[in-house]
Design the sequence.
C-alpha cells in the first residue's frame, strides 16, 4: 500500500521513477520559541516505482527562513547511508532542521546512480516548516 502524507505542508514529486514524499513536523519539545529557536523534523519516503534499481549517492537542500536567509546543505548519502532501491522498494528516514524563524521552506534533490553509472537528480519538491503559532497567525 503506498504511503500517503498526513500533513498538508509536505510535498511529493516523481523523477525517473523515484517518488520522494516528505512529511514535516514542528518539534515543540526541541524548540525555544521565546529565544527564536525553532526545530523541525521531517520524514522522507523514497520509493522506486521505476523498472531499474538506483542507489542514492548524495543530497542537496536549499533552506530559506521567513527572513529570506538562505542556506545550502549538501553531501554524500542520507543519515550516513547510501540506500540501494530495487524496483518496488522503499527507504524511509527522518532528519531535522533548526531555524531562527517560525517558518521556512526546504527543497532540493537526491542524486541517484544506476548500475550502468548513469546519474540523475530526484526532485524534492518544496515543503514548508511552520510552527503551529505561525500557521494560526497567518490565518488571522
Sequence:
Amino acid at each position: 500500500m503506498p504511503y500517503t502524507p498526513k500533513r498538508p505542508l509536505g510535498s511529493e514529486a516523481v523523477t525517473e521513477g523515484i517518488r520522494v514524499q516528505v512529511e514535516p513536523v514542528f518539534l515543540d519539545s526541541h524548540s525555544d520559541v521565546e529565544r527564536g529557536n525553532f526545530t523541525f523534523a521531517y520524514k522522507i519516503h523514497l520509493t522506486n516505482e521505476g523498472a531499474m534499481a538506483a542507489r542514492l549517492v548524495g543530497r542537496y537542500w536549499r533552506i530559506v527562513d521567513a527572513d529570506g536567509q538562505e542556506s545550502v546543505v549538501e553531501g554524500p548519502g542520507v543519515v550516513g547511508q547510501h540506500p540501494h532501491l530495487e524496483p518496488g522498494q522503499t527507504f524511509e528516514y527522518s532528519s531535522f532542521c533548526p531555524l531562527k524563524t517560525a517558518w521556512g521552506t526546504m527543497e532540493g534533490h537526491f542524486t541517484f546512480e544506476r548500475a550502468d553509472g548513469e546519474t540523475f537528480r530526484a526532485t524534492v519538491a518544496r515543503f514548508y516548516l511552520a510552527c503551529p503559532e505561525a500557521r494560526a497567525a497567518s490565518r488571522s
